[in-house]
Amino acid sequence: MNEARQRAPGEVYAHEYAGLVRLAYVTTGSLAAAEDVVQDVFADWFRLDGDRRDEIREPAAYLRRAVLSRCTSWVRRRVLERRHAAAPALTPPASDAPSQADIAAVRAALRRLTPRQRAAVFLRYYLDLPEAQVAAELACRPGTVKSLLHRSLTRMKDVLGE
């Protein structure tokens, strides 16, 4: 029987942890990520029931392979995060941005609505929920939502002078 296989999981952890962290650090370039990866691998290994863990002939090799696999996933995820972070933000041009006066006017118009009308406008136009879902949120029928929105927009147009 293999000597490493006879060791208790705690002994394997004590013996292999530092080397696996070094391996993960070289792969990820981050000590914190390396420690997290190795801890996750050991946690998964400890969770295996005794028989399944005993089937692993070479725990050190199994753990190394698991660490390398997780490090590869970690690196891929970081590359993807950087790619998305580097993508230009989809913001409207500055000329299309509402002025502070416009924002204040819309807020004033919203304050003139009833709480139920404000909720309908918020759910439909700010959260972009479909009318059926707005109806479910307000515990009413979709037709009621349509009339609420119609009255709300009419009132806001009157207040805004449009």
UniProtKB/TrEMBL annotation:
Protein's recorded name: RNA polymerase subunit sigma-24
Family the UniProt entry places it in: Belongs to the sigma-70 factor family. ECF subfamily.
InterPro entries cross-referenced by the UniProt entry: RNA_pol_sigma-70-like, RNA_pol_sigma-70_dom, RNA_pol_sigma70_r2, RNA_pol_sigma70_r4_t2, RNA_pol_sigma_r2, RNA_pol_sigma_r3/r4-like, WH-like_DNA-bd_sf
Signal peptide: none
Listed Pfam families: Sigma70_r2, Sigma70_r4_2
Keyword Transmembrane helix attached: no
Organism of derivation: Catellatospora methionotrophica
RNA polymerase sigma factor 70 region 4 type domain mapped to chain residues: 105-156
Domain (RNA polymerase sigma-70 region) ranges: 13-78
NCBIfam families xref list: sigma70-ECF (TIGR02937)
GO molecular function, one term: DNA binding
